[in-house]
């Protein structure tokens, strides 16, 4: 190489200064090839230190800089910014970690000094191979596609749509509102009427910045944050429409576990065994009646249908069942209501009070580990269940099954289309369950509501608003985005077209060019993990800033 | 094997978990043996087989690959690729007459400073016990 490398060792106060013999370090590296200056400084990340570095880079006409200081996780960005101010490409700076992984873990000063020299030599050797990388700027489309017109989708659209942002909602059924619209009413502490949901739908329909496609499906969506191309299949015979958006929100909601999968529940075989949604319908029309047209004198409301089969708690059914028990007690004189539950899930602040209120009305609660059998017996229904190994039985006129929430039928197809992972339950997997609960691993694709797992209406609304917030802050009108630059590139002359890289790229960033017979990396999608580089059998893929030769140099210095 | 043998170990650490775990070991002032030299990569899946083999053929007494725990990879699946490559490398090492025990794969998360120190210290002890990479004595193998 031709160039001037500047090496600056930070004392970091006593942190490095007292643990490593910096003068010895400087002496060992000062005469290495291309090292023009090797100096020490008290605290390089301080304002004085940054000013000093900037002046040095200019004065010494440095082409590459090695800073031996703290972990790159701490101050890599700081020193890259300094380089930029000094007119040096920030990727020509290498921060060598001689604090956390040297001074602080090797108590013996001599050994620590030796290690620091080794690391700095590796940094010098590596930096001389660095290439200037420039962040590209890409225009973004700020419009958003929302898949699913349930409460999460509606709320996302309402929070996002505005003068500079259009929202497209694609709903597969003929109307908006999703499952929330099928309920007879909401919980008292959620606002007692469903008109609240209808009001949201009306507001949405009036919003000129929201375009609604009902009876429609998304058949293709490809691209990356700021630039997605989407194809919508409109209705049965209404043809296709192509749109461009900057982000996609998956709000595909949930379906209900079909209790017919387990014959023990008696659904479809035994008269007057119904599902909770069928009961909601009866309550809505105020006709809670048996098959013979008479009102039931006793009902069993059965929780946790599918809890064992699916392996998780759906956490919203308990409250919904309490709500229905409350209604039945109020509307049918002297009716006997029994709830049979496995887990009673009352997680929110108003839930316990509501449960106690329902209990005071005379609703009975029986704990069961398993529903053994539901069958017709003596003109009634016998519900046999097990608790602590013992079989018990009650007889009722009507049995209402509350099935578990399961991923919606389309979610798998949509996940495949967008490259999204599913978790073992089949719901969409969050980018991070705790820290990024609404992001997916694919940048620009978000999820909200029950597409991520069972949720009640307020929780779905919170997620919808959070998703909207996330999109508003990442897709700003007029502002360009700068994708990762430490990405992979295919050297076409070495590529054999085996397409191994396509199969390992989690983000779908690599495609195959059939005319040239080579793989092509879409740099806007690539996250720079290097999986493709590691797996390429012909060494045709290069990882910018983590090239084979750069790592090889580090290996050689480690072995010196 | 001489008693003052100081092994040279190359450690490839993924940026998101293991490198951060190593930083934590340092900031918690845990004592870590100085024989392992860290090379940072974005993901353990970046390490191609020939980089590991080159290190061993050039005389590394040991190579450690450390990444995020299964299921925790910053890039979702990278550590699984690293694991498969590791299994393959062990076989290749046998055929090259390089002792497979000189290569280790470990999962160290960003919060496992203590685990990092334990992994490195234990591996350093094992390699010290094994003695120098025989390639030093017989560069033809």
Secondary-structure map with pairings?
The complex is a heterodimer of chains A (560) and B (141).
Chain A: E1 5-10, H1 14-17, H2 22-29, E2 35-41, H3 47-59, E3 64-69, H4 72-85, E4 93-97, H5 99-103, H6 109-127, E5 144-147, H7 151-160, E6 167-170, H8 195-206, E7 210-213, E8 217-224, E9 227-233, E10 240-245, E11 247-250, E12 254-256, E13 273-275, H9 276-284, E14 298-305, H10 307-310, H11 317-331, E15 336-341, H12 351-360, E16 364-367, E17 370-377, E18 380-387, E19 390-396, E20 398-403, E21 405-407, H13 411-418, E22 445-447, H14 457-474, E23 488-490, H15 500-504, E24 510-513, E25 518-521, H16 531-535, E26 541-543, H17 548-559
Parallel strand pairs in A: 1-2, 1-3, 3-4, 5-6, 5-11, 6-7, 11-22, 13-20, 14-15, 14-20, 15-16
Antiparallel strand pairs in A: 8-9, 9-10, 12-21, 17-18, 18-19, 23-26, 24-25
Chain B: E1 9-14, H1 18-27, E2 36-41, H2 49-57, E3 62-67, H3 78-95, E4 103-107, H4 113-130
Parallel strand pairs in B: 1-2, 1-3, 3-4
Helix pairs in contact in B: 1-4
């Amino acid at each position: 190489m031709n160039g001037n490398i500047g090496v600056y060792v930070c004392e970091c106060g006593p942190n490095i200064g007292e643990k490593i013999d910096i003068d010895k370090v400087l002496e060992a590296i000062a005469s290495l090839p291309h090292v023009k200056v090797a100096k020490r400084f008290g605290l390089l990340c301080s304002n004085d230190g940054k000013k000093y570095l900037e002046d040095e880079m200019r004065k010494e006409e440095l082409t590459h800089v090695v800073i031996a200081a703290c972990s790159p996780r701490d101050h890599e960005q700081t020193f890259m910014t300094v380089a930029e101010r000094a007119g040096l490409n920030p990727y020509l700076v290498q921060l060598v970690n001689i604090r956390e992984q040297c001074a602080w873990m090797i108590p013996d000063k001599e050994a620590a000094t030796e290690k620091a020299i080794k690391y700095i030599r590796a940094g010098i050797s590596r930096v001389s191979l660095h290439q200037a990388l420039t962040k590209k700027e890409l225009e973004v489309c700020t419009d958003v596609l929302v898949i699913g017109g349930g409460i999460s989708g509606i709320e996302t659209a309402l929070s996002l749509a505005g003068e500079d942002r259009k929202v497209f909602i694609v709903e597969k059924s003929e109307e908006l509102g999703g499952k929330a619209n099928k309920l007879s009413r909401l919980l008292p502490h959620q606002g007692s009427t469903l008109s609240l949901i209808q009001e949201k739908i009306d507001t949405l329909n009036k919003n000129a910045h929201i375009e609604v496609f009902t009876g429609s499906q998304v058949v293709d969506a490809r691209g990356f944050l700021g630039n997605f191309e989407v194809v919508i299949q409109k209705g049965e015979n209404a043809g296709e429409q192509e749109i461009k958006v900057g982000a996609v929100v998956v709000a595909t909601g949930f379906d209900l576990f079909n209790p017919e999968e387990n014959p023990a529940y008696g659904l479809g075989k035994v008269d007057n065994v119904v599902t909770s949604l069928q009961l909601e319908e009866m309550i809505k029309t105020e006709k809670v009646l048996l098959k013979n047209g008479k009102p039931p004198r006793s009902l069993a409301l059965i929780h946790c249908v599918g809890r064992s089969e699916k392996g998780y708690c759906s956490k919203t059914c308990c409250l919904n069942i309490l709500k229905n028990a409350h209604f039945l007690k109020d509307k049918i004189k002297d009716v006997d209501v029994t709830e049979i539950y496995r887990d009673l899930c009352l997680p929110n602040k108003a839930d316990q009070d509501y449960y106690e209120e329902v209990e005071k009305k005379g609703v009975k609660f029986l704990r069961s580990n398993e529903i053994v059998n539901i069958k017709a017996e003596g003109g009634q229904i016998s519900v046999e269940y097990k608790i602590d190994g013992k079989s018990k039985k009650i007889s009722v006129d009507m049995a209402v099954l509350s099935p578990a929430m399961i991923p919606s039928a389309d979610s798998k197809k949509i996940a495949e289309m967008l490259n999204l992972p599913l978790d073992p339950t089949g719901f969409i997997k969050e980018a991070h369950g705790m820290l990024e609960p609404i992001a997916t691993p694919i940048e620009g694709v978000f999820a909200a509501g029950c597409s991520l797992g069972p949720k009640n209406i307020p929780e779905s609304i919170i997620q919808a608003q959070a998703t909207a917030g996330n999109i508003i802050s990442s897709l700003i009108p007029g502002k360009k985005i700068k994708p990762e630059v430490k990405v992979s590139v295919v050297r076409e002359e070495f590529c054999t077209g085996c397409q191994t890289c396509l199969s390992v790229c989690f983000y779908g960033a690599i495609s195959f060019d059939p005319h040239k017979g080579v793989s092509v990396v879409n740099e806007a999608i690539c996250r720079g993990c290097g999986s493709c580089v590691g797996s390429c059998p012909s060494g045709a893929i290069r990882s910018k800033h983590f090239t084979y030769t750069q790592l090889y140099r580090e290996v050689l210095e480690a072995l010196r | 094997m001489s008693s003052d043998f100081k092994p040279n170990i190359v450690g490839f650490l993924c940026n998101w978990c293991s490198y951060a775990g190593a930083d934590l070991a340092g900031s918690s002032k845990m004592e870590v043996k100085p024989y392992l030299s860290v090379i940072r990569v974005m993901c353990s899946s970046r390490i191609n087989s020939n980089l590991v083999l080159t290190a061993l053929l050039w005389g590394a007494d040991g190579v450690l690959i450390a990444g995020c725990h299964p299921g925790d990879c910053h890039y979702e699946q990278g550590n699984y690729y690293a694991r498969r490559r590791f299994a393959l490398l062990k076989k290749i090492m046998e055929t090259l007459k390089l002792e497979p025990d000189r290569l280790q794969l470990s999962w160290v998360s960003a919060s496992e400073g203590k685990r990092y120190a334990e992994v490195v210290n234990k591996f350093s002890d094992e390699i010290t016990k094994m003695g120098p990479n025989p390639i030093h004595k017989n560069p033809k193998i």
